[in-house]
């Protein structure tokens, strides 16, 4: 399989999300290293197995001001994903899996102070049968998930992220996006254009919503007027019928 795929090592670790959730790091014989988080809270174990990644794809479901939502739903914020990338020493970071409940283009600014809670799954020593690790990988390879619910194991402060860093280059992913590794460093140049595009789309959607709201109000007014007209016609018919009966 190694010869067919060029994979030298494929390493996984448990992460704090749903039962059985894992992150993976793949190293190729060429030296290229790719790490993928899946849905999870920031994981110290993932930082260890992904050390020196060429490309890290990390979920950033929630914006920075939705920290409590991220913790409650076991996802990561954008700042947390960037912090993991820096702790991992990744050269390229692709942020993905954004919630539709906030702006479509995450803001890569105001990242001055970030304190990240690493929330690894509690584990117990058991010979490594539940975690696929290469030989010589340390204590992670001799752990399995425990039957107890995941808990925060420690709180650590990571280095302050800097989007202008010479080392870490950050890109924002979209569904069905295809990008060359060498182009990731340049994708941030498209962010202002994409932000402007989405502002225009959101503005148009707002106008449409207002138009629809006004149209619904007009329809209700017309329906109310028509109903009153029908009531008056019915009252007139009843009055004419009553006079005819009296005559």
Describe what this molecule looks like in 3D.
The chain has 247 residues and is α/β, with parallel strands linked by helices. The longest helix has 56 residues, at 191-246. The chain contains 5 helices and 8 strands; from the N terminus they run αβββαβααββββα. A 6-stranded mixed β-sheet has the order 1-2-3-4-5-8. A two-stranded antiparallel ribbon has the order 6-7. The protein has helices spanning 2-5, 44-49, 67-72, 78-88, 191-246; strands at 7-14, 22-28, 33-36, 55-59, 92-96, 123-125, 143-145, 169-172.
Précis, in short:
With 247 residues, the protein is α/β, with parallel strands linked by helices. 34% of the residues lie in helices and 16% in strands. Strands 1-2-3-4-5-8 form a six-stranded mixed sheet. The chain has a two-stranded antiparallel sheet with strand order 6-7.
Strand content: 15-25%
Unreliable spans are: 124-165
Tally of individual helices: 5
Terminal CA distance: 104 Å
Ordered list of secondary-structure elements with their pairings:
Layout: H1 2-5, E1 7-14, E2 22-28, E3 33-36, H2 44-49, E4 55-59, H3 67-72, H4 78-88, E5 92-96, E6 123-125, E7 143-145, E8 169-172, H5 191-246
Parallel strand pairs: 3-4, 4-5, 5-8
Antiparallel strand pairs: 1-2, 2-3, 6-7
């Amino acid at each position: 399989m190694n010869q067919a795929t060029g994979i030298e090592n494929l390493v996984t670790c448990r992460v704090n999300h749903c039962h059985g959730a894992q992150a993976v790091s793949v190293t190729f014989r060429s030296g290229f290293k790719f790490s993928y988080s899946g849905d999870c809270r920031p994981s110290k174990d993932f930082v260890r197995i992904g050390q020196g990644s060429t490309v890290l794809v990390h979920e950033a479901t929630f914006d920075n001001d939705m920290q409590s939502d991220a913790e409650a739903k076991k996802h990561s914020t954008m700042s947390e994903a960037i912090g993991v990338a820096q702790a991992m020493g990744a050269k390229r970071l692709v942020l993905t899996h954004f919630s539709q409940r906030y702006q479509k283009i995450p803001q890569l600014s105001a990242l001055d102070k970030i304190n990240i809670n690493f929330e690894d799954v509690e584990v117990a020593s058991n010979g490594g049968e539940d975690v696929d690790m290469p030989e010589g990988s340390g204590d992670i390879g001799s752990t399995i998930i425990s039957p107890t619910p995941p808990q925060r194991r420690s709180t650590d402060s990571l280095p302050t992220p800097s989007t202008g860093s010479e080392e870490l280059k950050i890109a924002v992913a979209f569904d069905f996006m295809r990008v060359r590794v060498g182009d990731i460093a340049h994708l941030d140049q498209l962010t202002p254009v994409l932000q402007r595009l989405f502002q225009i789309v959101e503005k148009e959607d707002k106008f449409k919503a207002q138009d629809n709201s006004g149209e619904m109000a007009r329809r209700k007014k017309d329906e109310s007027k028509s109903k009153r007209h029908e009531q008056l016609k019915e009252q007139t018919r009843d009055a004419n019928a009553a006079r005819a009966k009296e005559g």
